[in-house]
Fold:
Amino acid sequence: MADTTEAVERESMDYDVVVVGAGPAGLSAAIRLKQLSPDLSVVVLEKGSEVGAHILSGAVIDPIGLDKLLPDWREEDTPIKTPVTDDRFLFLGQSGGIRLPNVLMPKLMSNHGNYVVSLGNVCRWLAEKAEGLGVEIYPGFAAAEILYDEAGAVVGVATGDMGIGRGGAHKDSYTPGMELRGKYVLFAEGVRGSLSKMAIAKYGLADGREPPKFGIGLKEIWQVPPEKHQPGLVQHSFGWPLDGKTGGGSFLYHFEDNQVAVGYVVHLNYQNPYLNPFEEFQRFKTHPMVAEMLEGGKRLAYGARAITEGGYQSVPKLTFPGGALIGCSAGFVNVPRIKGSHNAMLSGMLAAEHVHEALAAGRANDEIAGYEEAWRGSEIGRDLWRVRNVKPLWSRFGTLLGIGLGGLDMWVQSLFGFSPFGTLSHGKTDAASTKPASECKPIDYPKPDNVLSFDRLSSVFLSNTNHEEDQPVHLKVRDMELQKASEWAVYAGPSQRYCPAGVYEWVDQESDPRFVINAQNCVHCKTCDIKDPNQNIVWTVPEGGGGPNYPNM
Structure:
């Protein structure tokens, strides 16, 4: 082992703009910057082993952002190949269900004109476009620290050190992180990004906003028999297996090569600590109207990711000295549409345009206030404004009445341009929504049949997640005694259920309960950082290149 007492000097590289995260927002920002000024130096950092490795989305993509960024994309060979041909909405009971007439749905809920895609593959293609314009992209490097100047402005980020053992000692493979300094830094880390979270806290960006709200999305890719495959079919459902008080629903998207994206979303403001989102997903697939699509098929991939659900009310202030939040770091998901990639791309472009303007004026490391002032009047603001009450109505009134009122609200706004509800608040955080176990009933989930339903460990295997085991645990517990006294004793250990990868376990439960963290299983969904009832778990980045390696998500 190398000596850890020596002062480590980091290498430093200077750029005009540093982008953290190679998702649709970060890549769109980078492309737009180079379109506006080819001479700008732009770098994109990506913690996944490759671009797209950590991207997980439904995904039905609204091409509005793409049309604006790359207007000629339809004339090229792209991974966007399957237009939506059939749009279905179902309400499920335990053994049956009804299809809701499309005519009841507001026009904004229609998916015609959209495409079923692998968002990971779309990002891989966008990365090629960016590199073709001269953008430097560095996958496998996790941005672990924000760099500030003496005035408190953001001046760059530092990547995490590599080759540190679990005990903190430097291994023979030790490599110090690098500093990437920029005149502006754009945080495009996705939901609950660790640096974005730091910036929000440091600059008070969430002050005066509603609490952020989240869901967890679980997804599998299945290859089904050709006779069952319906390219372009988009199907959403709500109802069973969740009870009427718990928000969530499913998606089934048929895309190319006889593949179907099967997914389930559970809103993280659920009350019962015994609820297990992974098991709800597995149970959903056994419903007769779903099973008939999947029987005879093969499960190819699995993954999970948190989703921003706060919408318009919860968007924090987006700018601070030296940088800005874009994409899901800003919270631009349209909840009823289950779409965020279009707004991610639009926000990346919008931020890029304001950064370019600032750079052209000779500015650096100051606040690009124009971006914050512009987003509400843009396509993003208009998209989120019309659906701002859907989530709070669902949370207040439950599934049936809440969805009905949300649909009415969207119709009234579409037709008359106002809401009878005004703008509703979200109230509690998702962590604070959890009830003590003594007030709730345990849920008895069926054992997996290994045909339609599966266990977590075999599922995690399909995520191709991998971490160097001999590294510091990246999931930090602030107070282990609090974890035992509250998370276990009061809430019955919900971490062992809400985590979709089996990272957390309570062992020796009958004698001396101990909290075990299997960090190597982590798929970087961030649910623990959101749902822990005491906010006692903090998600931080592991070594670069760790985490899932999604091939087609």
